[in-house]
Amino acid sequence: MNSLILSVGARFLTALFLLFSLFVLLRGHNSPGGGFIGGLIGAAGFVLYSFAAGVDAARRAVRVDPRAIGVWGMALAIIAGLASALASLDPFTGLWLILADLALSTVLVFDIGVYLAVFGAILTLVFALEETL
Amino acid sequence: MTPTAFMQTSVTLALIMVGLAIFIGFIRLARGPSLADRVVALDMMTTAVIVVCGLYAVRTDAEAFLDIAVALALVSFLSVVALARYAERLGRRNDRDD
Amino acid sequence: MSWVLALPIMIPFVTAVLAFLLRRSRMGDLASVGGSAASLVVAVVLIAEVLDQGVIAGQIGGWQAPFGITLVADHLSAAMVLITAIIGLSVAVWSLAEIGPTSARFGYHALFQSLLGGVTGAFLTGDLFNLYVWFEVLLISSFGLLVIGGRKYAIDGAVKYVTLNLIATVLFLAGAGLLYGATGTLNMADLRGAVAASPDQGLMTLIAMMLMVAFGMKAAVFPLFFWLPASYHTPHYAVSAVFAGLLTKVGVYALLRVFTLIFVGDVGYTHEILLWVSLLTMLTGVLGAAAQSDFRKILSFHIISQIGYMVLGLALMTPLAVMGAVFYLLHHIIVKTNLFLIAGVSQRLTGSSDLYAIGGLYRTAPLLAALFIIPAFSLAGFPPLSGFWAKFVIVRASLDLGEWLVAGVALLVGLLTIFSMTKIWAEAFWKAHPEGRQPALADLPRSARWQMMVPIIALAVMTVVIGAFPSAFLEFATKGAEQLLDPAAYVAAVLGEARR
Amino acid sequence: METLVACLSGFLVATSIWLMLSGNLMRFLFGLLLLSNGVNLAILAAGRLTPGAPPLLGVKGELPADTMANALPQALLLTAIVIGFGLFAFALALTIQAYRTFGHLEVDRMRIAEPAEERE
Amino acid sequence: MTQHATTGAGRLYGYAASGLAALIFVAFAAMAPGVVGGQPVLADWPWAPSLNILLAFMVDGLSLIFGLLISGIGSLIFLYATGYMGDHPRFGRFVLFLFAFMISMLGLVMARDLITLFLFWELTSITSYLLIGFDHDNPRARRNALQAMLITAGGGLALLAGFILMGTAAGGYDLAHILAGQGLQEHPLYGPILVLVLLGAFTKSAQFPFHAWLPNAMAAPTPVSAFLHSATMVKAGVYLLARLHPTLGGTPSWTVTLTAAGAVTAVLASVLAMRQGDLKQALAYTTLMALGMITMLLAGSHPYALTAAVTFLIVHSLYKASLFMVVGAIDHGTGTREVAQLRGLGRAMPVTAVAAFLACASMAGLPPMIGWIGKELIYAGGATMTGAPLVLAAAVAANALVFAVAGVVALRPFLGAPVRTPYPAHEAPWQMLAGPIILAACGLVAGVLAQPLLGAAIGSTLTGSLLQDRAAGLHLWAGFNAAFVLSILTFTLGVMLYVMRDRFATLVDPVLRRLPSLDNGWDQLLDALRDLAAWQTRVLQTGRLTGYMLAVFAVTALALGATILHGRPVIMPELPRSAFLWLTVGFTAAGAVVALNTHSRIAAIAGIGTVGIGVAVIFIFAGAPDVATTQLMVETLSAVMFAIAALRLPGLVERRSRQRQLAHGAVALAVGLCVTVMVLSVTASPLDRTITQYFEENSYVLAHGLNIVNVVLVDFRAFDTFGELIVVLLASFGAYAVLKRKGRAGA
C-alpha cells in the first residue's frame, strides 16, 4: 500500500500503540485495561506497521518469532502460577511486594504473561495470513 | 429545571441523536453501493461510538468509559486501513466484490 | 493438597513450553516424553492420595469455594487423570516413530501436551466455567493436531470437525452462562444445592438439556456424532489414537459428572432421553462400522457405539450401572487407543489403511496379530479381557432393572462388534496381501520398532491384567460410582461445612 | 432491559444459524461471529444488566454508593470473547486453506475424507 | 508342502503337546476313584468378589468323563497332527491354538461358577475361530470361520444373559450352590432363562436351525475336525444341557423343546449325511445326528434316558474321533476324500482299514462294540420319555440311516478293486495310525467290558451330577426286550438303505433341494446386514456438512423446545423505555440482517462489524468498560483479518433452494426463540449475588486491585485466564500450521 501518510506515520503510530498498550497493561489492575486489552493494542500497532511497510519489515521490527513471544508469555504465566509454591501457598496465589507506592506482584507477572501471549498470538495470526498470497 | 437535570436531558438527547447518526450511517453501509461508501460508513459509525463513550462517561460520571473512547480512537482506523487496502487490491485485480 | 491437584494440569503445559522452545532439536521430542513420564508419576501420587483420603479438593489461588476455582479429585477424576497420563506417555513414545521433524517444528509436541493438559484440567476442575475453558484448550489443541500433518484430506476432515465442535462449545458456553444467571454460582458442588433449591425447576431441566446437547456432541452420541467419523481417519495415527482414547471420553465424563452431581431434579425426563440416545448410539455406531472398509473408519464408528454403553450406564442410574459406565470408560480408553496405534503400525507395514488393499500381517507379523487380538476381542467383550467385565456389568444392570430391550441391544451390539473386529482380522491379517507384499515388523527401523511396539504391548498387558484380575478395578469403579450417586463427600470436600 | 437484550440475543443466534447452514464456509465464519455475539449477549443478560456504574472501586477500595454492575459475568464474557476470537482466527485460517485445497468453499462438495459411496 | 527350517522344532511341539495332554489324562484318571466314590474335587479362587463371581472348578462324574475324553483324545490328536501336518510352516502356531483350545474345553467342563464356565465357553469360540480359519489364505476358510464364530458367539451372548438371570434367580453364580438349591423350574425368570440358555447350547451344539456352521467348519485341517467335532467344542452345548438338567430340566417346555430340536436335527442330519460325496462332510453330518440324539435324550428325566445320553456321548466321541482321523489318513494317502473316487484301499492301507471297520461297527451299533450298548440304551431310554413313539421312531430312523452311512464310510473305500487316486494309495505314518486304532479298539474294549470300565463313572455321573437316584446298567445282552427288537429293525432298515442308497437318493434329493438352504440364508443375512449398514451410513453419514449441521441444530431446537413444553419455565417479559437502547438494538439487528443475504463480502464484513459495535454499545450501557473495549478491539482485529483473508477468498453466492431456505430458517428461528425464552426465564427471578459481593468486598482488601473485573481475571479466576491465554496461543499455532505447512499429496 503506497500511502505516504501511512508509511510515514506508521513508525510513530506503532511506537504510540506499544506505549499505550504498556500503559493499559500496567494500570489494568485498578482501571479498565489489563493484559488482554494491552496485548491486543500492542499487536494492533505491529499490524499497522505491517500494512505500511510489509510483513517482512514488520517481522524484522518484532525481531523474534511471534510464536516464541507467545510461548514466553505462557511460560511467564506458568511461573507466576507456580511461584506461590515457594511460599507454600496454593497454586496461582498472588504474592505481593509493596514498596511505597509501587506494587509488584506475581499477579502482575501473570498479566504480563497474558499480554505477551495475546501479543504473540495475534501477530502470528496476522503475519501468517498476510503471507499467504 | 436544575443544571443537573438539564445536563441529564441533554446527554440523553445527544445519545439518541448519535444513535440516529449510527443508524443513518448504517443505511449507507447496507446500501453501498460502492466499496468506499461502505468503508467510510463503517468508519463514521465507529467514530459515533467514540462519541457514545464520551456521552456515557458524562452521564454516569465514570471516567472509565473515556478510556474506551481513547483506545477505540487509537485502534479504529486500523480496520478502515485494512478494508481500504482490500478495496485497492480488489480494484487492481478487477475483481468485483459481488 | 491443591498442588497434587494442580500439577497434573500444569506439567503438560510446562512440557509444552519446553517442547516448543526445543522444537528444532531432538530434545523437543525427549522433553515431550519426559514430561509425560512426570505427569504419570504425579497422576500416580494423586490416585494414591485419593485412595488414601477419599475425595480431595484444592482451591486455586487459595480462594475459598465457591468464590475461586476449585480442583477436585474423586475416584473417577483421579482414575481419568491417571489413564490420561498413561495414554499420554504411550502416545508420546509412539509419536517418536511417526512424527517427523516438520510436524515437530510446527509445534506438534506443544499441541499434544496442551491437549493432555486440557483433558486433565477438564477431569479435575470443580468449576463449570473452568470446565468450559479446558474444553476449549483441548479443542483448539485438537484443531492444531488435526491439520498439522498438512494432508489434503485432513483439511476436509478438519472443516467438519471444527465447524461442528465450535457449535458444541458455543452451546456449552451459553449453558454455563445461563446457569450462572439462574443460580449465581459456577462451582459444581455449590451448583448441586443451588439447582435443587431453584424455584424454577423447568428452567433447570431446560439448561440441563442445553448442556446435554453440548456434551452429547463432544461425546459423539446419536444423532450428534457426525464430526467423529468424518475426521478421525485423517490425521497422524498418533493423533487419532489420542483423540480416540480421550476426546469423546471428556464428553462422557462431563455427562457423568453433570448428570449425577448437578442435574438430578428431573431424572425421569433427562435420563429417559439419555437411555434412548444411548440405545440408538450403540446401534447406529456399530452399523456404521459394518459399512466401512477402512481400518480407522471402522474403529471410529466403534468409538460411537461404545460411547453408547457408557451413556447407557449413566441413563440407568443404578449403582451397578454407573459402576459399569465408569469401568467402561476406563477400559475403553486403553483399548481404543491401542487399536488405533496398531492400525498405525499396520498402515506403516502394509502401506494403506484400506482393508481391501492390505493383508498378510498374520503370516509375517505374528506379534502384531497377537497384539491386535487382545484389544479387538476386549472391545468385543470376550472374557477374560477388560471389555468383558464392562459389558457384563452393563448387561446385568439392565437385566436387574428388567430392561429387556436394553440388554438385548447391548448384547446384539456386542455381536456386531465381533463382526467388525473379525472383518479387520480377516482382511488385514489373515488374507494375503493383494500385491503380494510380506509385511513384517522387521521392515521398521530398529528404533521405530521399539517406539511403536512398546506402547502397544504395555497397553495390551493392561487390558489383560484388568480382565484377568478385575476385582481391584471393579471395586475401584464401585467406589467411584458410589461417590457419583451420593456426592455428599464431594460437596463436603469442596465447600467444607461453610455454605449450604 | 433484559427482555430486549434477550430478544436481540435470540435474533442473532437465529441469523447466525441461518448463515452457518448456508453451505459456504465464509458464511459459516460470519455465522460464527454472530453466534459468539449472540451468546455473549445472553450471558450478559443472564448476569443481569445494571445500567451505570462499572465494577470499579474507589481509590481506597471503597464501594460506590449505588450498586455496581455484576463483575463476574463480565469476567466470564471477557474470557469468552477472547476464546471466541481465537477459535474464529483458526477457523478463518482453515477456510483459506480449504479454499486453496479445494478451489471453492462449498462444504458439501468437500468430499475427500468421506468420498461418495462407489460400491452400491 | 514346502519344507521349512523349523520343521523339526514344529514336530517337537506336537510331541510335547501330546505328552502334556497324556499327563492331563493321567491326572484325571488319578482323580477317578475319588470322584466315582462320590467325592468331587473342588477348587476355587475369588475373581470378582464385588460381583459375587468366583474362579471355581469342580471335577465330578460328568466333568470326569468329559475330561478323560478331551485329554485322552487330545493326546492322540496331537500325535496324529504331527504326522498329518508336522512340516507345515506354522505348525507351532497350530499346536499352540489347538492346545489352547483343549485347555479352554477342559476349563469349560470343570467350571463350577457360571461366569467361569462362560469364560471358557467364549475361549473355545475364539480358539476354534482361529483353528477353523487356519488355512487363512482360502476365502472359504475365512468365511466359515466367521460363520462359526458369529453363530457360537451370538449364542454365547444369549447364554451370558441367561447366566446373569440365573445368577439373579438363584442368588449367585456358584453352580454348587445353584445345584444344591431347589431348582429354578418354578422361578418367574425360568422362561427367559430357559430360552437364553438353550439358545447358547443349541448354537454351540449345532442343533437345528443353527446347524449350518458345523459342516462348514470342516474347512479346518482334519485334526481340528477330529478334535472339535468329536469330543469337544460341539459337545459343550450338550455338556451344558446335562450340567443344568437338574436345575432347569424336567418341565414341559424343556422336554418339548429338546425333544423337537434333537429329533429334527438327528433325522435331518442323518438324511443329509447319506447324500454327501465327501467323506469328511458325511462325518460332519453324522456328528450332527449324534448331537441331536443326545439332546433328544436329555429331554427326558428318567435314569434310562439320561444314562443313554451319557453313554452315547462316550460312544460317539470314541468312534467319531477315530473316523475323522481315518478320513484324514485316506486324504493324506490318496489325495482325495470323494467317496466316488475311493475303492479298494484295504490292501494299500490295512491298518487304516482295520481302524475304520472297528469304528464303523461301533457307529453302526453292531455288537460287541460299545455302540451296540449305546443304541440299546437309546431305545430303552426313549421308551421312558414323554412322546415315546415319536422319539423312538426318530431314533430308529436316524440310527438306520447312520448304519447305512457307516457302510459307505467303512466298506466302500476299502473293499473292491483298487481304482486310480490322485496319489498312489499308501499307508499313513505311525503317528497318524496310533490314534484311530487305539480309539477304535477302545470302542471294542469298552463294549466288552462296559460295566466294569464305565459303569461306575456313568453311575456317579447320574447320581452325582444329574441328581438321579440310579443309573441303568451297561450290558451287551440285556435280554430279549423291546430295545432288542428295535435294534434288529434298525439293522434291517439300515441294510436296506445301504443297498438301495441310489433309489433313496432319487427319492430324497428333490425334497432336499427344495429345502431352504440355511447356508445360503446365512450369506443373505450378512448381505442384508451390510445393506442395512450401508443404507444407514448413506442416510446419516452423508459426507455433507450442511446436513450434519442441520441435524445438530434441529436436535438442539427439538431438545430445548420439547423441554420448554415439558418444564414450562417462568418468563416475565418487560420492555425498556430507553429510546437509545431501542436504537442500538435496532441497528445491531439490522447489521445482522445485512450479513444475512448479501453477496458482497465487504457488506457482510461491515454488517458483522455493525453488530460488533452494537454489542459493544450494549456492553457500555451495561457498565462493562473492560468487556466493551475488548469487544471493540477483537471486532477490529476480526475485521482486519477478514479483510486480509477476503482477498484470497471467492465471492458469496447463495445456492440454497427456496425449500431449503425455509427449512433452515425454521430451524434457525426455533433455536433463536429457545435462547430468548431461556434468557427471559433466567432473568425472571432475582440473582444470587453472593459471589459478586464477595469479589466487591475483597477485591481491594485481599487482592489489592480496584478493577474488580481485572482482579477476577488475574486473581480470583486466574485459572480460567490461564486456560484462555493458552487457547489464543494455540489457535495461532494451529492457524500457522494450517497456513504454512505446504499441502502434501494424499487423498
UniProtKB/TrEMBL annotation, chain A:
PANTHER family the record matches: NA(+)/H(+) ANTIPORTER SUBUNIT B, NA(+)_H(+) ANTIPORTER SUBUNIT B
Entry coiled-coil feature ranges: none
Protein name: Na(+)/H(+) antiporter subunit B
Subcellular localization, as worded in the UniProt entry: Cell membrane
Bilayer topology annotation: Multi-pass membrane protein
Keywords assigned by UniProt, alphabetized: Cell membrane, Membrane, Transmembrane, Transmembrane helix
One Pfam family named in its UniProt record: MnhB
Family: Belongs to the CPA3 antiporters (TC 2.A.63) subunit B family.
Domain of life: Bacteria
Residue ranges of the TM segments: 12-29, 35-57, 69-89, 95-128
Domain Na+/H+ antiporter MnhB subunit-related protein: 5-124
From TrEMBL, chain B:
Domain of life, per lineage: Bacteria
Bilayer topology: Multi-pass membrane protein
Keywords, comma-separated and alphabetical: Antiport, Cell membrane, Ion transport, Membrane, Transmembrane, Transmembrane helix, Transport
Pfam family, one: MrpF_PhaF
Family, as annotated: Belongs to the CPA3 antiporters (TC 2.A.63) subunit F family.
PANTHER family per the UniProt record, alphabetical: NA(+)/H(+) ANTIPORTER SUBUNIT F1 (PTHR34702), NA(+)_H(+) ANTIPORTER SUBUNIT F (PTHR34702:SF1)
Name this polypeptide is given: Cation:proton antiporter
Source organism per UniProt: Paracoccus acridae
Lineage per the UniProt record: Bacteria, Pseudomonadati, Pseudomonadota, Alphaproteobacteria, Rhodobacterales
From TrEMBL, chain D:
Transmembrane segments: 6-21, 28-51, 71-94
Top-level taxonomic group: Bacteria
Keyword flag Transmembrane: yes
Membrane topology per record: Multi-pass membrane protein
Keyword field contains Membrane: yes
Cellular localization per UniProt: Cell membrane
Main location: membrane
Record's keyword terms, sorted: Cell membrane, Membrane, Transmembrane, Transmembrane helix
PANTHER family found in the cross-reference section: ANTIPORTER SUBUNIT MNHC2-RELATED
Family: Belongs to the CPA3 antiporters (TC 2.A.63) subunit C family.
Record's protein name: Cation:proton antiporter
Organism: Paracoccus acridae
From TrEMBL, chain E:
Compartments reported by the entry: Cell membrane; Membrane
Membrane topology of this protein: Multi-pass membrane protein
Key word Transmembrane present: yes
NADH:quinone oxidoreductase/Mrp antiporter transmembrane domain: residues covered: 111-395
Endpoints of the signal sequence: none
Domain MrpA C-terminal/MbhE: 660-741
Domain NADH-Ubiquinone oxidoreductase (complex I) chain 5 N-terminal, chain residue ranges per copy: 49-94
Keyword Plastid belongs to the record: no
Pfam families with a match to the protein in the record: MbhD, MbhE, Proton_antipo_M, Proton_antipo_N
Domain MrpA C-terminal/MbhD: 587-650
Transmembrane segments: 12-33, 53-79, 91-109, 115-134, 146-169, 189-206, 218-242, 254-273, 282-300, 306-330, 351-370, 390-411, 432-454, 474-499, 545-567, 579-596, 603-624, 630-650, 662-684, 721-739
Keyword set, alphabetical order: Antiport, Cell membrane, Ion transport, Membrane, Transmembrane, Transmembrane helix, Transport
InterPro entries: CPA3_Na-H_Antiporter_A, MrpA_C/MbhD, MrpA_C/MbhE, ND/Mrp_TM, Proton_antipo_N
Main location: membrane
Function description: NDH-1 shuttles electrons from NADH, via FMN and iron-sulfur (Fe-S) centers, to quinones in the respiratory chain. The immediate electron acceptor for the enzyme in this species is believed to be ubiquinone. Couples the redox reaction to proton translocation (for every two electrons transferred, four hydrogen ions are translocated across the cytoplasmic membrane), and thus conserves the redox energy in a proton gradient.
Protein name: Na(+)/H(+) antiporter subunit A
Organism from which the protein derives: Paracoccus acridae
Encoding gene (name): mrpA
